[in-house]
Amino acid sequence: MPIPTLLRRLLVMALLSSALVWVGSSPASAACSCTAAAIRSDTERLARIANQVFTGTVTASSAARRTDGVAGAVLTHDVSVELVYKGDLREEAVQVQTFRGADCDLGRLDNGTRYAFFVQSAEETLVANGCGGTQRSRPKLTVELETLFGPGEPPQSEAPAETADIQPVPGVEDPMTFTRAAAPGAAMVLVGLLGLVVVRRWARRG
């Protein structure tokens, strides 16, 4: 086999190999433009976009198969809410959904770990995506959130309706009802009428 032909074949194989490596690795890097560093440096924009921003600790999680045609799972995390910076959360415990399977999905969050959640509200579901800003809580992030929204507040549950609790006072009788108050007057009127009848009868006899 002539040497030029062999070199030519080796060159083609090398090009094909490098192309396969580039094609195989590029979707993962090109499809997801956000990185952990980019998210950390973009706190203000991501916080403005989010419907709710709060910190909390993941206490448990469960997984279910995705129904959007993408292989992977829908992960539901039980979160104990600590401080609310943006939004109207009132519950001390909420559920946050993340996804696993597609590029940029956030995946499973670690139980027992404190996160800063930047979530979108879909009806009654809180959803955190990989590029939405949700990340582990850290002191610098706390300072940034306080600068944007002020100090966070614990979730405030709706106050129950106030009810009057009337306690009887010893030695004080219940207020007199209208019937009891009017009874003596009615009796006097009745006596007066009877007296008029008697007087009229005596007058007729006389």
Mean pLDDT: 76
Q: Regarding quaternary structure, how should these chains be classified?
A: single chain
* Low-confidence residue ranges: 5-30
Please give the share of residues in helix.
Answer: 25-40%
Largest sheet: 5 strands, mixed, barrel
Following the backbone from N to C, one meets helices and strands in this order, namely: HHHEEEEEEHH
* Beta strand %: 15-25%
Distance between the termini: 165 Å
In spatial order, strands of the major sheet run 1-2-3-5-4
Describe the global form.
globular
Based on secondary structure, the structural category is: alpha+beta
Discrete helix count: 5
Radius of gyration, Cα only, in angstroms?
39 Å
How many DSSP E strands? Answer: 6
Brief characterization of the structure:
The protein has 206 residues and is of the alpha+beta class. The protein is built from 5 helices and 6 strands, in the order H-H-H-E-E-E-E-E-E-H-H.
